Amino acid sequence: MDLSVAIGSLTIPNPLIAASGCFGYGVEYAEAVDLSTLGGVAVKGLFLAPREGHAPPRIVETPAGMLNAIGLQGIGVHRFIDEKLPELRARRAIVFVNICGTTIDEYVELARILSDAEGVHAIELNISCPNIKEGGITFGCSLPGTHNVVSAVRKVTRLPVIPKLTPNVTDVASFARAAEEAGADAISLVNTFLAMAIDVETRRPRLTNIVGGLSGPAIRPIAVRMVYECRQAVRLPIIGMGGIATAEDVLEFMIAGANAVQVGTANFVDPFIWAKLLDGLRAYMTRHSLAKLSDLTGTLDTTARHKAWISS
Amino acid sequence: MSQVYTSAMPVDVDAAVIANTRLSDDYSVLALAAPAIAAAALPGQFVMLKASRGLDPLLRRPFSIFEVLRDGDGAPSGLTILNKRIGKGTGLLYDAEAGARLACLGPLGRPFEPVDPPAEAWMVAGGVGLAPFVTLAEALIARGTTVRLFYGARRAADLHCAGIFERLGVGLVCSTEDGSRGARGLVTAPVDEALSALPASQPVRLYVCGPTPMMRAVAGVAASHGRSCDVSLEQVMGCGLGGCYSCVVPSLTAGGAPHHTRSCIDGPVFDATRIVWDALAH
After folding, report:
1. Which of A38, A87, A18, A47 is nearest to B244 (CA)?
2. Closest in A52, A55, A218 to B259, CB measured
3. Which residue among A135, A303, B79, B103 sits deepest, i.e. has the most Cβ atoms within 10 Å of its Cβ?
């Protein structure tokens, strides 16, 4: 039974990657989870310099979901390399470093620095965080912006370059194409949906930042649709995410066209979810006599269910 | 900056509700069968409880471990939480019936450090902030430390579970805002009076848990008397393990730099002098 999947030149032992922003720097979970058994760990988004992020409250729950506006608090790339990467390396984690800048030059600088660090396996470009005004999403919401940042980073690193796309656009597939044309090795999607919640008693926003990003099972059907649209548009490997909480959810994304997935919010609810997801994937493979899990990607059957008998 | 507290590996228990004792229309003591967590728990640590098996509410909630339950042989068999019905999750927990099962992850967080004699330990609790102090009182009394509890609430009917502390031999000083039990007013005043009366040669550490304005006021009183003070803070928390960066507290590093530190793994217990009270959301 082969659960491994390929993301360009990088082969990972299974399709389950811990989503950036939902797994700290990975080391927080190293006692709870054998990091080497994951398909990868996408660490919390890093800028060049440390950041303190937004004032709390930073999260609020909504039905089947949560809004967050953390504001990319982080220790910066240098402290990450010095303080976190050695432990990730020692624990044999496959490390996806999520990077964020306010200018293309900052993305390029981050990519250069990380390319020289031992134990980094891929670079995920955060061009989709909805919670900070400067940078990031301004690239992700513009087709030329996406193209320019991907091609600039592509030129300075041999590591796989994976732009993480925002769903807060009209046609996400056009951004997938822009990434492909710019030389991306894969794309990951979706980041969170820009959203808002209000306390009607006080008439105040529930988040200090007023707006935040919606994640969790509430967004899953929209995310599946977006992965499906991107699969139609590009040949690139796709890392799908958005509300995955069960093995069935993983399979849904893969059938829609994802080569691998990321799990975020569900890890907050159950830090031991990874082994349960793997068990569910193995059970499905047994039930469907599937030798290679990667054969499932993009196998959505859209042939007509019924003989056409009336025009819609 | 103090280092992140690393405890033994937390465990996730599908815990059966043993009993749910309603103390009032909004307070209950929920007893859960979770021996593995109870056996590892240290004073002031917490668990992350899932109030529903469904998706609303989606996340777990942090709760101080209120009591460690023991079987006839004295072995840890479970734990209780002191629950106050405030929102959807706490409402579901208030309504939980014996036999129900709740996912319970723990023990988590930096525990209290109990002081040894001759130092005294003064615990200061406001309302549901009583929750972390039973386990602390037991640890202190086991060391032979003299323990007092200053316990404040709106009215006498809200001073739940004081008897637990009296039975342990804790000196109890109650206050209520309406004067229906003990001194009238906030708990700060009796703490201030007692500190004024304490000889300077008598070491004491304060341990405080309650509403943010109350913790701030007591921390200020402790500082004015030059006494050390630990506070147990609660913030909106997503995961309890340091993954989400939701539960941050405005604090100062050892070098005095402002820093959002995670209350789940750097706390919930902090030296009060590290907290930037002006910035802490109320």
Report:
1. A18
2. A52
3. B79
